[in-house]
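Example record

One chain of 467 residues, shown exactly as stored in the release files.
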Amino acid sequence: MTAHKTNTPPAISHAATEAATDESTSVSDQTPSLPMWSAARISLITALVMWPLALMSFIYKVFLVPHNNHITDDFTTVWEALGRFRAGVPVYSEDYSTVDPHYLYSPGGTLLLSPLTLMPGFDSGRIAYIFLNGLAIVLALAILTRLFGFRLRGGVWPTLIVSVFATESVKNTLLFTNINGLLLLAEVGFLYLLLKHRSVVAQIAAGVLLGLAITVKPQFAPLLFIPFVRRQFATVGTGIAVPVVFNIVAWPLMTAPGDYLDKLVPYLGEVRDYANSSITGVGAYFGISGPLLWFWQLLFAALTAIAIVLLMRWRDRDPIMWATTTAGVLLTGVFLLSSLGQMYYSMLLVPMLLTVVRYRSAMHNPVVWLGVYFCLSADHWHSDRFHTIGRAMENIRATVGWSAIIIAVATTVVVWTVMEIRRGAPVLGDVATGGLFGGRDESGVDNEDRTTTAQIKEDEHVERTKH
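Predicted structure tokens for this chain:
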């Protein structure tokens, strides 16, 4: 085998060079030798380091933590409601004036989740539910890895698993035993099918996945905006039809289905003052006045709209960055502006965060990562010594995090837009060339790669002109 020559920096001594050479040739005979700092070698080493950590993170968060005693239990409420549905007794018969966890799913969502009651008992059902959500998160991260152009054999997938499983969102999703893991898989599958496949079958499948998510959590409905402006109307139609069909089918199968409209929907419209990180939730907790709440809501509604509209400039040139960032901004806006926003919803922002690997990304703004820390970190800010400040920080940190993300993304996109207009680009960007319902370029990563070189040269030319 011919040895590969490597360029060694002058700062490395001759002895160190020989040691590095010996180390690089001591790899197993079955593995081709790689340059010392090649991308392939770094990816291989990262995978070797991260897979054991990923495996142990999964085992710890799925098979140990959720099975310890904890005051919050979302699964019991779901299990009992599904049992009432199967037994033919009213499902929405809870006392909604209490602070206990309540069953909040629609008749369609109840029908969708009803197969869970086929499990032999509560314990086996809960174990299966936890495992399915943990597995769904891992699969969602695998799909994201491929969506962004990385191989599953490399180090990106296990690194994502370790990072995401370290968040408050995954920890409490599995500990409380709720459905967020499966919802993340539905969101990621929807984006992958939408962006990577051109066929009508794929578009319908993307709509089915989004429709299932909407059936369980109507907060996903704003994501229909993405296929709508991409002229993928089969996805839009399917995404609307799925929750409608599930609710129509479930209505006659449920005893007293009218309780959903008479009891649950009014409750969902109320703003609760506990475990609620939306702007109105924080306002209720701290007793903030109505006009001030309206100011903050209008401000962040405007910032969300600015980010969504201006991101349209890159809809066709970089569909992956555009779609995942738009999805993240839409969901963050929902978390902030709806009547209920819980911190573990932040898991659904992971597709947007992964755009950090792209040539152009709002995730290159450090303020975004400050926001990510506040809404995804598992750190606790309760303090025995600084009780008041610690309690306030813990109660508002998701709100602060989501707000920082919206502000940073909106600011970043405004700067991008101004820079492009100064270079003589059309004011409407991709909308000017492709129309409001743009062309459906499904090339994803390849499409960005074709434009990256030209964009880099253009940026370098602008920098030389400045100097």
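Notes: The chain is about 65% helix and 0% strand.
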